[in-house]
Amino acid sequence: MKNLSPVQPFQSSVTVSSHGVLTTLTVETSLAAKESIASDEKSLLTSYVYRDDGTYQLVYTVVDREGQAEHFAEDDGILPTLFLNPQQQAWVSIVPYHPDKELEISIPVFQREQVELPKGNRPFAGDFIGSTETASIFHVADWSDTKPDKMLVMQFANGLLKKKSNLKLPLPGNNKLVVNRTTIELLAHVGGDWLHRQIDEQGNELQRRTIAAKGIYAQQILALSFDADSFLLAQQEGQLVIVKIDVAGSSAVRKLIAFEDDLFNTWRPEPIADDMFVTRFNCEFGNGWLTTRKDQLIELYYSKDVNGYRNLVNGEVFQLPHDKLVISSVNRTAQGAYAVVLYPMPDDDKSSIRQLLILNRNLAAG
After folding, report:
1. Peptide bond preceding 172 in cis form (omega within 30 of 0)
2. Cα 10 from chain centroid?
3. Which of 151, 273, 299, 353 has the most crowded CB, counting CB atoms within 10 A?
4. Does the predicted TM-score (pTM) go above 0.85?
């Protein structure tokens, strides 16, 4: 396969503030933001950039920690799903054009010279969870504990994709998953308890335990292990809390901050350092993200009642020229550093998106 071609569909500007480095990318027509992922201490974004005639091109954008951006065009492919192979190299699953079939291929984003065009597979409608030492893991749940979760395992050898396996996980369903480098941890609500299971890449159960949930619903797993302390993010009685679970299965609740607005959605936390995670969320009055270290709150940015985001920990406002923003993704860029990808929310169905905003923030710098 041939490598990607450089393109320049965006105008770019970079500003620096106490909150970090903000890159603003603007197109002449319109765009549709897709997903992004961390890659070599940079953010790798995907978007559709539309032409005047209504057609579009899949464009990859690489933004470094200083805010500089490069752009590359995909020759033939849509519906990108970015993921990392076990060597932490960026790969993508895309659907090339075919008049009769919709089949997905998985290929490296860059350095394709040694890769032959693979045969297509039926697309897997799931999320990339992480990589073990030999495989990239995807997961999808049916939001019902009576239907099995599905897991896609992409086996790699010498940096190349060798095999894809679709698995159904043993019930109960509707699990949250985290990937540790050698195992996969599952957490499900069963009755009034949490069921913690550990499986291998073939879906075989290795061990399990039941943990008393004490009426708390786990929004997200921050860390989950049989051999070390585990941490779950939750909301309880108008507070954001972290539940700390020790290796014996005993739990304790740590209150982080008062937060009365109910969380509608949270996304899988992004690990940015040892025991440090960034979790994005939305609720009725806005969206935002929070950073935790073990059972401590480092920062909480929330868009309620401000153009931009207010850090509820110290009151500082990250001012932006938009009253409503969508958080597309959060990516680790370096130890203790991350990038938030945003775009202005359209005013109505006829409005178009023309900008992407990428905030590079470095907590390690103090």
Report:
1. yes
2. 24
3. 151
4. yes
Output the six-digit token pair for 248.
């014996």
Q: What is the pLDDT of residue 364?
A: 82
232 closest CA partner among 213, 214, 219, 249: 219
Query: What backbone torsions phi and psi does residue 143 show, to the nearest 5 degrees?
Result: 60, 25
Of the candidates 120, 161, 109, 77, the residue with the CA atom closest to the CA atom of residue 4: 109
Using the predicted structure, report yes or no on whether residue 365 has a pLDDT greater than 80.
no
Burial class of residue 267, CB neighbours in 10 A (0-12, 13-18, 19+) = middle
Distance CA 62, CA 222 (A): 27
Work out the burial of residue 365: count CB atoms within 10 Å of its CB; fewer than 13 is exposed, 13-18 middle, 19 or more buried: exposed
Instruction: Give residue-wise pLDDT tens across range 212-228.
Output: 999 999 999 999 999 99
Q: Which of 359, 365, 320 is nearest to 45 (CA)?
A: 359
Q: What is the pLDDT of residues 286-297, one digit of tens each?
A: 999 999 999 999
For the chain, what is the radius of gyration of the CA atoms?
A: 21
Q: Which of 193, 290, 282 lies closest to 233 in space, CA to CA?
A: 290
